[in-house]
Amino acid sequence: MTTRLTVGRYLRVGLALACVFLVNLSVLRRDAHGQDAPAGTANGQGVTTMAVDVKVVTLPVTVRDKKGQIVRNLTKDDFVLQEDGRPQVIKYFTQDTNLPLTLGLLVDTSLSQRNVLDQERNASKVFLDQMLTDAKDQAFLIHFDREVELLQDLTSSRDQLEAALQLLNAPQLERNGGGPSNPQSSDPQSSDPQSSPGSQPRMSHGGGTLLYDAIFLASNELMKKQQGRKALIVLSDGDDRGSRESLQSAIEAAQRADTVVYSILFADKNQNNGLGGPGRSHIGFPGGSFPGGGWPGGGGGGRGGGRSPQEPRVDGKKILDQISRETGGRLYEVSKKQAIDQIYDSIAEELRTQYNLGYTPDKSSIETGYHKISLVAKQKDLVVQTRDGYYAEQNAALSK
Fold first, then answer.
1. pLDDT in tens, 176-187
2. Contact criterion met (CB below 8 Å) for 281 and 301
3. Which string of DSSP letters, residue by residue, matches 236-265?
4. What pLDDT shows up at residue 201?
5. Distances (CA, A) of 269 to 37, 98, 116, 266
6. Which of 129, 266, 322, 357 minimizes the number of CB atoms within 10 Å of its CB?
């Protein structure tokens, strides 16, 4: 009899503890929505809880027919959505173009691009003029070669962006294989137009193209903090050399920032991409001008910018296509049939006509990490363009 009563008491205690756990979990979930967290447990001791950032998953969606023309008259009932193979319910669906637009231009200024910079500069100005139509719309400009540099922070000022575009220039070769040339030299090639008056001109070796670092920093330091529609425009030949970040980490950063990446392949057929010996790779924005300081320590040295003779040449087109495809963007290639201004017109049309789709995942938000998304149109001859997935964030919190 005594044993049975003792067991009963333990069962009642176990049930009570289970109730406390469920109450704490309920409070925790309310806390994730902005309500006050509990100060502690009944006995005054702190407990470690795991908070998960639960949010509506939003997808920018573009649909094209078999001729490549954008389809604009669809509804949510025209799509089939899955997450990790499980059907999902589309709760939000709109073509609202009044959402704030944040654009980032990432321009490759390595030696392989020096003969196309004028075309890129002029076309980019026209593109920004036609896209920044509201005071809420903003853009920034980054150039990258053997370093990543923010030429213009987020702004809605077209004049400031145009002034920054004028700073786009290929790196100068250091003469005689030594250090920077004399800043007082009368040689116009010895000065850097990006230097402020009275400052030491920035001279650099020809090697180095920090494409992955540029995408990572733009996504993680700038885009992640923004709301609304977000897109990066990358103008490059896709040949990364010297980045600290990998291709996958660059893509992941864009996905975590809910940012679409459009790539414009602008390869100079007359330029030898192998130019330049090993350079000093400066990563992060010079002088700590990158918001948040870039990597810990504000950047600094990295791997050399040159490619060793044994290193296999990468296919820049495939690289850019992967970046765009996995983030919901698209790859364009400048050619005689498609000039860069026509490409910008196509990107502008796409940004204006995107569907905005939203859903709340059916499974518990405790399941963090990467989740694969599949979105297809019920009409078989339509091609749906959106990102491949998203990351569910998880934060550990100690309540006392």
1. 344 443 333 333
2. yes
3. E----BS-SS-HHHHHHHHHHTT-EEEEEE
4. 32
5. 60, 40, 10, 9
6. 129
